[in-house]
Amino acid sequence: MIEILxxxxxxxxxxxxxxxxxxxxxxxxxxxMYYSGQKDSEMEESVNSVxxxxxxxxxxxxxxxxxxxxxxxxxxxNIIHLTVYGLxxxxxxxxxxxxxxxxxGGDKVEWNIYKLAKYNLxxxxxxxxxxxxxxxxxxxxxxxxxxxxxxxxxxxPNEREKVLKEFK
Amino acid sequence: MIEILxxxxxxxxxxxxxxxxxxxxxxxxxxxMYYSGQKDSEMEESVNSVxxxxxxxxxxxxxxxxxxxxxxxxxxxNIIHLTVYGLxxxxxxxxxxxxxxxxxGGDKVEWNIYKLAKYNLxxxxxxxxxxxxxxxxxxxxxxxxxxxxxxxxxxxPNEREKVLKEFK
Lengths: 168, 168
Hints:
Chain A is α/β, with parallel strands linked by helices. Chain A has a single domain (2-166), classed as 3-Layer(aba) Sandwich (Alpha/beta knot). Chain A is built from six helices and eight strands. Chain A has helices at 15-27, 41-54, 66-73, 90-93, 111-116, 130-142; strands spanning 2-9, 32-37, 59-62, 77-88, 99-104, 119-122, 153-155, 164-166. In chain A, α1 packs parallel to α6 (130-142). Chains A and B meet through α1, β4 and α6 of A and α1, β4 and α6 of B.
């Protein structure tokens, strides 16, 4: 079970980045994304619209206390915080057998998060993007095995055309 | 030699996404990003500021004609267009021995791009993020081998602290 916690969502600055975080989470095996900061119904709607069309399971939920969520999860989940300052992620990846909660920051992550996380992990030790870091991490963690359910549309890979298969 | 072409940058909508595309490009082995659409000096500056602090080589350049650039590059570069509609990227990855120009879209990519690209490739065949797709693609293409030069700062991986090494 893979879940994501996106910290400190700010309006309007983070709308698209947080949407991308959620869609990457959905595509690469997570079943849920929590987010803290400012509630953003429009962002939730655009994520839910992808889930409705292209399938789930994937939920998005606003929470107002990230620390409380982490404390509730920490007995049953490996709490992983993706941060540029952390240890190289690859060394830890193979030891993650049980449930995983992956935390991705906004700009300023409070010190508590570093302390509460079981692992603070970096994808490359270079500054880039929480979207990119999460994508690489999940792709390596989960592989290509997520099976989507309840979709109305499916993309059919093609050399040069846009092919969508519709289900009724 | 890996270069990126980001299409149809729009202000202010794409500022942060395009910045993330550029930083992912830099972190995972590209040496240059071209972008078309609207010129954005602020975005260029925030990318250049990362290059100044954390090293290069990495250039960013605005171009007003993406098709012309592709036509100039196509004899010497494998032109790859990352699109959700394309073929699974993994099958092609091992055949990419020479220079690579990777095109990532904005929302509406003109039909010409699909035609001009040698390969239209998808990372997962699920809708998510050009940042996420580029990160996974470059990470698999390039691995961890980019050696940065001319940096003033370097992040030192740490279990729980933020450690930056400064060079003078």
